[in-house]
Amino acid sequence: MTPAEQSRKAAEICALAPVVPVLVIEDAARAKGLAEALVKGGLPALEVTLRTPAALDAIRAMADVPGGVVGAGTLLTAGDVKAAKSAGAKFGVSPGATDRIIAACAEAELPLLPGAATATEVMVLLEKGFTVQKFFPAEASGGAPALAAIGAPIPQVKFCPTGGVSMKNVADYLKLSNVLCCGGSWVAPKAAVQAGDWDQIEALARAAAALPR
Fold it and tell me: Among 59, 97, 115, 191, which residue's CB has the most CB atoms within a 10 Å radius?
């Protein structure tokens, strides 16, 4: 799978909803219910970050949820890519981008949303064929104004900004012409997940799914 093919697939996933939930799951037993609530609320693309021991089991549990498209975030090594693909991930997200990560995703045929924070990083990935990228860490890198500034000379690259994005500032990103969707964790509050409060999470998902872009 070439970078261009990966970007086409990433664009399709980003088009599913204005927000991609970024999920840090501590208990895989909660994963299916969480995924069902988010999908029911209108957010089908789900990023499970590989930051916890339960992450791969959570991906396995979510992979069979009807209407959902589960991916793996925080891909740092080629081993992460292989494990995520084996667990059922349909796409991958990395905080940055390395040649090894890119090669591993190409070999595994796992669409990659590679991270970039500067114009140089964006240009390097564009040279490789990635026209859809993750802007990370979004708020720490200057937020929506910085992403708008990058978009002026490099309009052919579209982004999914992640990192510090919340209901308070998400509209600032979604109104940009070079933003396809945003990644955020606010739709799945830790306390609500631990309590199994799927109604609350579904409501938060519906509000996010209704955001204009």
Answer: 59
